[in-house]
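Q: My labmate handed me this sequence with no annotations at all. I'd like to see what the chain might look like in three dimensions before we decide whether it's worth expressing. Could you predict it?
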Amino acid sequence: LALFSERQHGGVLFLGFFSMILACFSQAAGMAASLALIFLYPLFKIQRIHSIEDRVCRGREIGQGLLSVLGSAVLLGVWFLDFDLRPQRAPIALPWTGKFWSFFLDAVSFGFGFEDKPAFLGFLLLLIIAVPVVGTFLRHRGKPPASFVTLTVLLLGLLAILASIAAGRGGRQSFPPSAFASKYFHYAVALLPFTFLAWRWFLERRARLQAVFGLFLWIIPAVGFADNLSFDSYREMHKERLALEHGVLKYYHGVGPVPV
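A: Here is what I predict for the chain of 260 residues:
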């Protein structure tokens, strides 16, 4: 939140950048989520530079912006140093391919409790996430409060994580997308509370609409997770995991391919 506040302090910016470094080198998801911050923070700085008239303050903002860009470039360079894309791994599903969007939309749907549903449902859920964000930015003419910018970075960071997973896993053909999407459920389900907060911002000063959409955003996952009360889905998961286990055993006994 402090990174997008009106009063930009050097110590806070350093702490934010240091936290981003820790996130990037803790797991790959941290790097994916940081891309949203790396993209939005320079835009935030450019907007501030154009709005500030005092030369001293503008110079300080330019310096902080250049340091953030330079630091982000170094971080990206170090993170991708000696990056090894092994040929035996599944090919990357690029964003303009159907494999990518099939996996990505399935992962978004899974966060709302829907598994193995049509891609159209995932697209509608993605719109539910995007509409309040875009609408709030348009209403504030590109200058929403710092807290909402932070919320936007969180949402984009989660979507970036799911997109990176879709790129890395979407090229696999052995199992349906949900077989892998379920492993990353904790990233997808985090979209729920932040989407709710985004709609609260978008519908501020409209208490009735806030209540209606709050109920609507509660009903959607309630319907999606309703099948969790049935043991049929757990039996299917058990069969899939047994198949994976048998594949690993065959591999170590030298009678099967590399398990995927």
